[in-house]
DNA sequence: TGAACAATGTACGAAATGGTACGTTCAGTC
DNA sequence: GACTGAACGTACCATTTCGTACATTGTTCA
């Protein structure tokens, strides 16, 4: 257990400040993530972030220079977090078909479980990806994702259960699209079509659809009997 | 030809104001659409919209009360415009398979051609669809979309070329997801995977993938020879 | 022609907002 | 213990930004 709240102090004693740079920085980043992902770059307010932090506004500028830099760090931290989670997925010991099935289901659920991240990516796209463009960190983080899928795919082609000629990057695009949209457009879609998209039973349906759709697309046409 | 710019006047003559409420309103809405879709609700500035308009800031408030109401009207107008374009699609005279193919390709291209609309929908989702929820207009506009797809689908089931048991609404969800993502995430995807997604040849590839994927999903499994 | 109302221009106000100046306290080093 | 740089608090500033008050011009209709 590390040093905690500086406000907790022996009663009556004049409260002494306790320096804890690491946790202050982390706290700011956590609050900023919530605020930016909720309200966007222009919608989020530095003053509000400051209020919700244990630290003060001064500290935000001390560690992050300005609003846009704070946003960039938020984005980077978010990518780092999700890619770390994804790295836990181990597909090498599975047969290609099962591996792909597992990968798709994981991607779908993983997106659904990280709406903050999805929203940050949406917001970054609204800004034409100009912050992401500044970050070599994010670029490098994501290179591996395609390789994982590429391995599964080529194993499947070798085994004869997957069609030839598909590009892993395009395949990843298809899987991402279906998983991303599930989170990004849940509000408009639910309201327009009067459909509780986020209800567990509907989420299950969609996950099955998406998985099934991808597998049907990649699998070889049914072999003649 | 209707009344035009009030700035054009016989030389030397003291410029007289010409009232043209319809076009002023339309002009404001057009500029607001660009600004909101580019920068979001909180990012767009009323003053900037006013500057880019032939009218003045006063007029914005005169016709649209406040910023949020202007945004709502922008959103409604955008939905109206795209649904009108979609209504031109006539599928009844086509065989189910061709009709579905045509519908998917149309949806994909239509999204690609209307990035402003897509961005507004993204922005609306960032706001949890709370403005869309206020608009009965938008709700009613979209009801028909499912019916069109539903008709094609049931015709296909009747003909025996489509599988049974699929829900038109869920089918629409899948088609939307693939078409929407193509526009909404083009920036991050292009940058992260170093892939010119918007290049014509890649757009063609994606359109083919998406169409093929949907058709494979809906078609009956290959009939035994 | 002249009310009466709709449409428009100009200038301004109050609050919000990003950012900073300046001073104080903490923690490690000689 | 004195010194130094990092870590932090408070108060403040300049600008932006939404919105409005007030005056003026256009248009329609009796």
Share of β-strand residues of chain A: under 5%
Q: Oligomeric status of the shown chains?
A: homodimer
CATH class of the largest domain in chain A: Mainly Alpha
Q: What is the CATH superfamily classification of the largest domain in chain A?
A: Tetracycline Repressor, domain 2
Span from first to last CA of chain A? 64 Å
Mean pLDDT of chain A: 90
- Helical percent range of chain A? 55-70%
Shape, principal axes of CA atoms of chain A: elongated
Number of strands of chain A: 0
Helix/strand-derived category of chain A reads mainly alpha
The greatest inter-chain interface is formed by: A-B, 56 and 56 residues
User: So, CATH architecture of the largest domain in chain A?
Assistant: Orthogonal Bundle
Q: Could you give the order of the helices and strands of chain A?
A: HHHHHHHHHH
Task: Assign the CATH topology of the largest domain in chain A.
Answer: Tetracycline Repressor, domain 2
Q: Round the Cα radius of gyration of chain A to an integer and report it.
A: 22 Å
Largest beta-sheet details of chain A: none
Uncertain segments of chain A are 1-15
Number of domains of chain A: 2
């Amino acid at each position: 257990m590390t040093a905690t709240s500086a406000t907790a102090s022996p009663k009556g004693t004049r409260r002494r400040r306790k320096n804890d740079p690491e946790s202050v920085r982390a706290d700011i980043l956590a609050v900023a993530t919530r605020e930016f992902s909720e309200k966007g770059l222009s919608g989020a307010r530095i003053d509000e972030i400051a209020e919700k932090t244990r630290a003060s506004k001064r500290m935000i500028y001390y560690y992050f220079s300005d609003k846009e830099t704070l946003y960039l760090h938020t984005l980077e931290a978010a990518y780092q977090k999700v890619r770390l989670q994804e790295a836990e997925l181990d597909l090498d010991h599975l047969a290609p078909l099962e591996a792909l099935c597992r990968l798709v289901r994981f991607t779908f659920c993983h997106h659904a479980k990280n709406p903050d991240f999805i929203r940050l990516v949406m917001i970054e796209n609204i800004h034409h990806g100009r912050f992401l463009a500044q970050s070599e960190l994010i670029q490098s983080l994501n290179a591996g994702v395609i390789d994982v899928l590429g391995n599964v795919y080529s194993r499947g082609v070798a085994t004869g259960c997957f069609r030839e000629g598909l590009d892993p990057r395009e395949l990843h695009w298809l899987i991402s699209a279906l998983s991303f949209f599930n989170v990004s457009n849940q509000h408009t879609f639910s309201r327009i079509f009067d459909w509780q998209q986020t209800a567990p039973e509907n989420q299950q349906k969609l996950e099955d659809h998406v998985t099934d759709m991808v597998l049907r697309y990649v699998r070889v046409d049914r072999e003649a009997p």
